[in-house]
Amino acid sequence: MNEKKFSFLEYSFISKIIIVLGYSAILLFFLYMPRIYTFFFTPAKVINVFTFTDMIPSSVVKEFEDKTGIAVRLKYFDTNEELLAKLKIDNGAGYDLITTSDYAVDILRKDGLLIEIDKSRISNLKNIDQRFLGRYFDPENKYSLPIAWSVEGIVYKKDLFTDCKDKISWDLLYKKPVFNYEVCMPDGAREIIFLTAIYLYGKTNNLSSEEIEQIKQTLKDQKKWVEIYMSGSLQYYLFADIVPIAATSSAFAKKLLETSNDFNFVLPDKGSFIAIENIAIPSNSNKADLSYKFIDFLISTKSAALNFKQHGYNPTNKKAYQLIDKKFLNNNNFFPSNNMFDKLHIINNEIDNKKIEDLWLAVKLA
């Protein structure tokens, strides 16, 4: 009797182990299924690209894949700071290409996180507008190539600013409103600090401690009539008549003006900043041969023009200008004249991140 009871318990115990192992196997299968699929079904030629959400049109990716047989996997980030954090953690492991803005290129190249670009592999390099080459963040363009650009300006509702339509300036955002309205400002700390420096001093370089303190005080004072600090989804606040005016990029303004005739976009005479978007290869990438093909395709005339059409970023490929809608190309607020271009500053890294974070925190808590 005791022997039979022992055998039954033993059988029951083994059955439970089998059931647990079975469930564990199923769980592990589902957990690792993406990796198994990737191992067996990933195309032989594939590059992983870490990019802004609105920088590379899907139609450009598809055409490139169809023409070359190289698969392009896009993973997105929202801010340069997110990209910088990611690359500093693991040196960009897993990514073959990145898009990033001017000041971030400066940080990445100095930290040794980018490889030198073999320019002989880029046939469309000859078509890049020289105004975007040789800038401070990569003086010899050893580590990056500019693929797009935009300018920061003012978008406003035309019927509410009829009395000053010829005098749209930063004053309308920074000084106490002459009538009861609120404004929207960019949510990037670095962008808004340097925009305020341009408003106050007409410069972004060699800012003294006193000038930085005045920037902070100006932003604290302005906060009283700022509805929200935001770059994306700004159209909701404008279309819903929550705010009639905002500081924003020409890329966003282009899409807004295509949607509604109620708004206008102006680049103030005092000047502004220009954002130059670049493409670069992380230091851990081992697929430079494939990456060069995609870089060349991105800065080609057709691809650059498609970027403007879909996302609003101006092309750095000067030949692409001939494919741009004339109502934008002939508008000096979207494509500044040479005189205005000289008044456009580039965001730099002269103020260290800690000071920027502290200043912005003080404004937010004011």
Summarize the structure.
The protein has 366 residues and is an alpha/beta fold. It has a domain at 150-274 and 347-365: 3-Layer(aba) Sandwich (D-Maltodextrin-Binding Protein, domain 2), CATH 3.40.190.10.
Rg over alpha carbons: 26 Å
Which structural category fits the helices and strands? Answer: alpha/beta
Mean pLDDT: 90
CATH architecture label of the domain at 150-274 and 347-365: 3-Layer(aba) Sandwich
According to CATH, the homologous superfamily of the domain at 150-274 and 347-365 is Periplasmic binding protein-like II
Strand content: 15-25%
The coarse overall form would be globular
CATH topology-level name of the domain at 150-274 and 347-365: D-Maltodextrin-Binding Protein, domain 2
Notable features of this structure?
single chain, 366 residues, alpha/beta, D-Maltodextrin-Binding Protein, domain 2, 44% helix, 17% strand, disordered N terminus
Structure notes:
- The protein is of the alpha/beta class and about 375 residues long.
- The chain has a domain at about 150-275 and about 345-365: Periplasmic binding protein-like II (D-Maltodextrin-Binding Protein, domain 2, 3-Layer(aba) Sandwich), CATH 3.40.190.10.
- Helix content is about 45%, strand content about 15%.
- The protein is built from 14 helices and 11 strands.
- Strands 1, 2, 3, 4, 5, 6, 7, 8, 9, 10 and 11 form an 11-stranded mixed β-sheet that branches.
- Helix 2 (about 60-70) links the parallel strand 1 (about 45-50) and strand 2 (about 70-75).
- Helix 6 (about 190-200) crosses helix 7 and helix 7 (about 210-220) packs parallel to helix 14.
- The radius of gyration is 26 Å and the shape is globular.
- The model is unreliable at about 1-5 and about 35-40 (pLDDT under 50).
